[in-house]
Amino acid sequence: MSQSRSPAQAGFTLVEMMIAATLLGIMVMAVSTLSVSGMQAQEYARRLTRATEIAQDVVDGMRLELGSSVRLFGNDTEGNANLAVLDLAGAPARLAGSRLSTPDANGTVRQDTAANAITGNSLMFAKLAWNDRFVGPATGRQYMVDVYRWVHYYLTPEDGGPLAGRSIGLNLVRVVGEPLADAAAIDAIANATDRAALLQHLRAGTPDALGVQHSPCQVVWRRGELPTVAGTLREINPVDGTLSNTPLVATGRPSPWRVLRTEVAPRGLLSYRHHSVATVHAPINQRVSRFGLRSTLGMGFPHGFEVQTVGPSSARQVLLHLAIASTNRSGHTAFADVQMIVDARDQ
Q1: Is the pLDDT reported for residue 1 higher than 50?
Q2: What pLDDT is recorded for position 272?
Q3: Which of 10, 31, 134, 247 could form a disulfide with 255 if both were Cys (CB 3.0 to 4.6 A apart)?
Q4: 162: Cβ–Cβ under 8 A, 6 or more apart, which residues?
């Protein structure tokens, strides 16, 4: 005859309660783990999206500027000579071992080989800043002069720089030079009075024939010439509108020649974005150094910023490849990379 519990015996035994508590604990732990994992996955996805947005934004800025380029500077005599003239005193230091790309007039975008390496990890070009129109007082003739600016993008070490075992430690700096008037247009003005008046107008930054007022322009530049050649850079004399092959002492311009910056202290493009250009020490699957020959010697090369310049001067193409990493040290590092080929003028 079966026995049943009396009302006094109703309820759970100690063993049953322990089993139930254990199962409940396991369930709570599983739910908590899933919740935390879901939050971490969501946060990681957010950081991935943010990294992609930043990389795309930076490369888009370069693309827009390259659209108005008139001269690309490469790892050759002219390019390096002009780079040496650009005033970087007080700006973030260039990463040791950085170099401009080597133009390949007959090639296409490709991976470097030991025998034929063209990839650089900095970019420098001259872009059209504005067209200035001026009516000569002597002849009444209207003259148009192009005014350019040099633009330089380069890597700078940050937070200890690129170190073994670290994917971060680099920032990307953008430096813009002062306005430079087109020497060809200036030298083509036959009337000396008109030419002097135009140069004084450029130097003073007075409104042009359309009423537009631009920044003062103190220097005339001859494209395609070495800055060491007399007449490549000439300063406008504000008194009489003549041109001087050497910097004028009275105006305080540095001598020897320096193309001055428009910003006193430029900052890195990633300074306030909590990201870094990815270094060569990043995992190989993060698409760092896709085109250049990867090297960890010294400060490393090329890191997460790669540039190639290919095609004839009449139809140049510039490869821009940027890989960045989040500086957020919690959880997995978020990486993103953007690659773009831009048509650019190189006259």
Answers
A1: no
A2: 87
A3: 247
A4: 95, 169, 170, 279, 280, 281, 299, 300, 303
Would the pLDDT of 301 be above 90?
yes
Distance CA 72, CA 320 (A): 14
Residue 153 lies in a domain: yes
- For 200-211, give the DSSP string: HHHHHT---TTS
Number of domains in the chain: 1
Distance (Å, whole) CA 50 – CA 315: 34
Inside any domain, residue 121: yes
What size, in residues, is the chain?
A: 347
Q: How far is CA 29 from CA 25, 34, 38, 343, 344, in A?
A: 6, 8, 14, 57, 58
Per the CB < 8 A criterion, the answer to whether 95 and 299 are in contact is: yes
* 314-341 pLDDT tens trace: 899 999 999 999 987 666 788 999 999 9
- Mean pLDDT score across all residues of the chain: 91
Answer whether 173's CB lies under 8 Å from 266's CB: yes
Identify whether 10 is part of a domain: no
| Domain encompassing residue 74 | 35-344
Strand, coil or helix: 183: helix
Q: What is the pLDDT of residues 145-198, one digit of tens each?
A: 999 999 999 999 999 999 999 999 999 999 999 999 999 999 999 999 999 999
**CB of 173 within 8 A of CB of 92?**
yes
| Model confidence at 221: pLDDT above 80 | yes
Separation in Å, CA 39 to CA 47, 160, 286, 325, 336: 12, 31, 23, 20, 21
Quickly list DSSP for 129-152.
EEEEEEE-TTT--EEEEEEEEEEE
Is the residue at 6 inside a domain?
A: no
